[in-house]
Design a protein that fits this description.
This protein is an alpha/beta fold. The protein is built from 11 helices and 18 strands. β13, α8 and β14 form a beta-alpha-beta unit.
Length: about 450
């Protein structure tokens, strides 16, 4: 549990909204003072974290993380995954429902919520399944999950598409009662049977079954219209094509209550990487073309795409280090997300750090409804009196990425061997340091496994 920290900190950095360095004092779990260097009163014994040109962001919030517990603790646990999240600058994550057992009952979501609290690295907000067992046949107990101690607000069958339009309509109607949102994994199943990668020139040349853009776009088009029809809130997971950006832009122009996310990998990697058949690049939705990468960057910069979400999808070596066709879909992302956003959006001049705070903290917290009392003020601006959820980043640093040395329990980052800009120097969860000097601050807590609340 993260009781207010007794240690007091004074951080020096530039706020995302400004250009001049400030000192920020963290005391009793909140931001106690902000002022020009040397002008704020620094409490006796305060721990100083001062570097040149550091940026002070609100703690990052991920709307799309796979923590794999219960069921695939060989890939990740709540403990290892949230430790990786802290290392990446996050203070809250939403844990996807495709676990075993599925997060489709109040019992299971409460267990995951409790494991997150015990680990204490970041706040864990379990996502509830839309349908029982992600089978796409019967609505799960959405209300019971919403009313549980985990207070679920985001519902998703991620990994699978809620394909039946009647079920999708019912889910959208149902979650309105508690201001929830349905987060759709947009994939038309019939159009993607046996699909291995993006359908296009590369798939034709290397002989892998393609996943056409229209399989994503047709579901997004249907769902924005359904959301309009029932007057509900829709979120689109890991959007990946230029056409999807256009549909979201159209829907927002029409006043439809839709939000969308893009992953870091879709901001930078393309289907050309499949040519060597290295399954580390196999992911759902697949890496697309350079034209799609340009379109999602533009959509993120102009606000059509609301957030960057990692879709951190850890898999053990047995499931990734094999022939392309039998490898699992997915790549890790918690520890590289901020660097990829810096590289593709900030260092290219397309976004400011204030925009980064918006797409990696403020907007995801608002979509997940954790910016208020329940979320204990995640995604709030860096201001006096706010909870001290903060990430201090050094944008001038560069890092060589190696999946084997990351904090996550799995190695499947697509960025191994690459240099990325930016380094998380420190992360604070309600005033307690979870990362200092770029290293996770370990505490005397044991990783307790899931205690089988099964239906
Ligand atoms: N993104 C992936 O390729 N895989 C995810 C599922 C998902 O996000 O659809 C996983 O759970 O491994
Ligand atoms: Zn998905
Ligand atoms: Zn996912």
């Amino acid at each position: 549990m993260s009781a207010p920290s007794t240690t007091t900190y004074v951080l020096r950095g530039v706020l995302p909204y400004g250009t001049d360095a400030v000192d920020v004092v963290l005391a009793d779990g909140v931001i106690a003072a902000i002022g020009a260097p040397g002008t704020v009163e620094v409490p006796e014994g305060a721990h100083e974290v001062r570097g040149e040109g550091h940026v002070l962001l609100p703690g990052l919030v991920d709307l799309h993380t796979h923590l794999r517990e219960p069921g695939r603790e060989d890939a990740e646990t709540v403990f290892s995954g949230t430790r990786a999240a802290a290392a990446g600058g996050f203070t809250a994550v939403h844990a996807m429902a495709n676990t075993t057992p599925t997060q489709d009952t109040a019992g299971v979501v409460e267990q995951v919520y409790r494991l997150g609290q015990e680990a204490g690295w970041v706040d864990v907000h379990p996502v509830g399944a839309v349908t029982v067992g992600l089978d796409g046949e019967k609505l799960a107990e959405l209300g019971a999950m919403a009313d549980s101690a985990a207070r679920v607000r985001v519902f998703s069958d991620d990994g699978k598409c809620v394909h039946d339009p009647v079920l999708m309509r019912r889910a959208l109607e149902y979650v309105k009662a508690f201001d929830g949102v349905v987060a759709q994994h947009a994939q038309e199943p019939r159009l993607t049977e046996g699909a291995q990668m993006n359908e296009g020139i590369v798939s034709a040349q290397i002989g892998l079954t393609g996943w056409p853009a229209v399989a994503e776009e047709s579901i997004i088009a249907r769902d924005v219209l359904l959301a309009e029809h029932v007057g509900s809130r829709l979120h689109v997971c890991h959007l990946s094509t230029a056409g999807s950006v256009e549909i979201i832009r159209w829907a927002k122009g029409r006043g439809i209550d839709v939000t969308a996310e893009v992953t870091p990998h879709h901001l930078v990697l393309t289907d050309e990487l499949a040519r060597d058949y290295d399954p580390v690049f196999k992911v759902n939705p697949p890496l697309r073309t350079a034209k799609d990468v340009e379109a999602v960057r533009e959509g993120l910069a102009d606000g059509t795409i609301d957030i960057v979400a990692t879709d951190h999808a850890p898999h053990p070596v047995e499931d990734k280090d094999c022939e392309w066709a039998s490898a699992a879909f997915g790549m890790t992302g918690l520890e590289t997300a901020l660097s990829v956003v810096q590289q593709t959006m900030v260092d290219t001049g397309r976004m400011t750090w204030a925009d980064v705070a918006r797409v990696l903290s403020e907007n995801p917290a608002r979509i997940g409804r954790i910016d208020g009392e329940h979320g204990r003020g995640q995604g709030r601006p860096v201001a006096v009196g706010e909870p001290a959820n903060l990430t201090l980043v050094d944008p001038s640093a560069t890092r060589a990425i190696d999946g084997r040395t990351q904090v996550t329990a799995s190695d499947n980052t697509p960025f191994t061997g690459m240099e990325l800009p930016g380094r998380v120097v420190a992360t604070f969860l309600r005033g307690r340091a979870t990362v200092l000097d770029g290293t996770v601050v370990d505490r005397a807590v044991e990783s307790k496994p899931f205690e089988g609340a099964v239906r």
